[in-house]
Give the backbone structure.
Amino acid sequence: MNNYLIPANSKKSQLILGYFTLTDIILFGSGVGLTLLLLLIVQSANVGIMLLILAPALITGFLVMPVQYYHNVLQFIINIYSFYSGRRRYIWRGWCSGNGKDE
């Protein structure tokens, strides 16, 4: 039984540090960059204002936190967005396929 064709770690090896995609790094980097910019601009010692300033980094950090099945949900949301926003041209490329070329 349990004869799997695809190794369990095949997807994880394609991620940065085994957990993050390039989209995750860009999203978190933009949140941290915006937070640093706001920290330099706003001069306030008020706790409420400081929480608002730290919000971009905290929210993007929460969004990219490695949670079980996170990338599946993210890919599903990306697929829905691209389906309704872009041209509908799908190129099928299988793992064990020669991509239309005879070998």
